[in-house]
TrEMBL record:
Enzyme class, broadest EC rank: ligase
UniProt pathway annotation: Amino-acid biosynthesis; L-asparagine biosynthesis; L-asparagine from L-aspartate (L-Gln route): step 1/1
InterPro entries in UniProt: Asn_synth_AEB (IPR006426), Asn_synthase (IPR001962), ASN_synthetase/amidase (IPR051786), AsnB_N (IPR033738), GATase_2_dom (IPR017932), Ntn_hydrolases_N (IPR029055), Rossmann-like_a/b/a_fold (IPR014729)
UniProt entry tagged with the keyword ATP-binding: yes
Keywords: Amino-acid biosynthesis, Asparagine biosynthesis, ATP-binding, Glutamine amidotransferase, Nucleotide-binding
UniProt similarity note: Belongs to the asparagine synthetase family.
Lineage top rank: taxon: Bacteria
Name this polypeptide is given: asparagine synthase (glutamine-hydrolyzing)
Enzyme Commission number(s): 6.3.5.4
Limits of the Glutamine amidotransferase type-2 domain: 2-218
Pfam families documented for this protein: Asn_synthase, GATase_7
Amino acid sequence: MCGIAGFVNVPCGYEHAEQLIDDMCQIIRHRGPDDQGTWVGNGIDNGTCAALGMRRLSIIDLAGSHQPIFNEDQSMMIVFNGEIYNYQELQQNLRARGHQFRTNGDTETILHAYEEYGDDCVNFLRGMFTFAIWDIKRQRLFAARDRFGKKPLNYYWDGQQLIFGSEIKSILEAGVPREVNPLALDEYLVYRYVPSPLTMFKNIMKVPAAHILIYENGRISTKRYWDISFAHTCNDDEATAIEHTRSLLEEATRIRLMSEVPLGAFLSGGLDSSVVVGIMSKLMSQPVKTFSIGFEEDSFNELPHARKVAQHFGTDHHEFFVKYDLVSILPQLVWDYDEPFADSSMLPTYYVSKLAREHVTVSLSGDGGDEIFGGYEQYRREYQIYQIPRLLRGTMARASYLLPNNVRGKKRLQTWLRDYGTRSIEAAMLFPDYTRSALYSKDFYHLVQGHMPFERHLGLYHSVQHLNPTARMQYVDTLTYLTDDILVKVDKASMFNSLETRAPLLDHHLAEYVASLNPSLRINNGRIRDGHGKYLLKKMASELLPPEILERPKRGFAVPIHTWFRKDVQSYAHDVLNSSQAKGRNIFSQEMLHNLLSTDGGHPLTNHSEVLWSLLCLELWYQTFIDEPGRTTAKITTSSYTIKK
């Protein structure tokens, strides 16, 4: 696992280019503390330079695979972040076609696959990756991001210079303008993260998952190379689906045990991570090292469940209690995430990664299980609604307007009249009680009033209208929430601790198969009373896990933020958001802020902790990246080298 960085056509001389690429790598050294490699060469025009760099976390071929890696005639090179699990098979095929290998790792395999298959090389790769290949002769950059977006890739483009990196920090080292994108801020306040392809910075973009980026002839372009369809195209019966899913998941787990360094697993006590740990226990000759996080608040503490799974499989188990020390750790997390990010579970994810890194360098996780196998409560709820005939649904929705306002369920019934995608988005909105004009100051509203922050998501919903509602939700969540929230959260938290994470449930062979089945197999096999989603996964795991784990109601990686905000975090948030510095940004309506801060309190109905948390993360991001844009980390000494061509 590594971090990569680079640029093309940046006006500078060799010495400046060498310093710049070194700075871009040094600021992401947490992603790869073991090694650094850079290359500097001529750019497209006289007086410009191109460069590639990487930071390495050594996992495979520890003694070799120093990057950048060149092809046989030194005409092209690659920097790579990730793991390719089928690289040995690809090596055999490429050797048979005449390619010569100087290393025993997966990085060189990608480069030779690009030589052999061109831009289609990504279709042969099984794993998680971002990489950049610079073709010196053609002066062409080819970069790609894996299918689900497990590994990040960002880029800056001003019509001439292309600057890219695993983290936005690297790009900012090049001195690009730190201008806030108001449209991205508008979307952040809907989703609690900035959706792809935007970032919070103008002219800095994310390469979306399953996309390639090409720079050639002074132009850039992006293109999707893969998509997952949740259309019902496979008619396997239940028994066949269970057996084939088991086979695919065992294979996906087995190939992710490939490592020359210590390896373990996150264990929450929920279904997804427990299944992964169970399969690992079957495949490994020694006890699996497992890592769990708990809270002092009993209603949020899942350690007892994790212990049961650990005892069941005889793992080497480690635990950590998270206390509400947000005031001390939050500024560091804000710097780590590059953009405003308000998923509060980033805190336990950071701590479980920190705990795991004390014992291992690689950890497997259960990420992706909810999206692929249909585990979210809203999937089951929408499946139930979908079973009601359309005419009856409409009649019930219209009749709900005649009910008294205090009748439970009235608002939910009324949503049945809305467009399906709109209903789903509105259910998760951060500011449902404020119109956008009442949310913002007049000046800021002028910048975003023509922007629809959920238009991109609605477009995805409408593009798959042929699917049933649950399959439609799974598709949209996989392309949005999974990529831009969950996988960002895990990548940032783990890589800040120099820990590699792997997700067997997001193996694309497994995901494609499960997504092709009848949706009722994923949700509840058509019997609403029978479960709460993940029917197929539960059936597959029935002989692996104890009944109390299988039958547990789903509970996400939740954080007791409402409780914490009634302690010192509340006063901290109020102080930060009430400061002249925050108010001087002229983003939000002062009346709205005053109402939020003055009515927030101990009563559940007036606790605005989710909203205040999101605004707090945004304000701390401004202070870190806009107000004080200086370098915030100290140098460390590692081996490094630079190649000149």
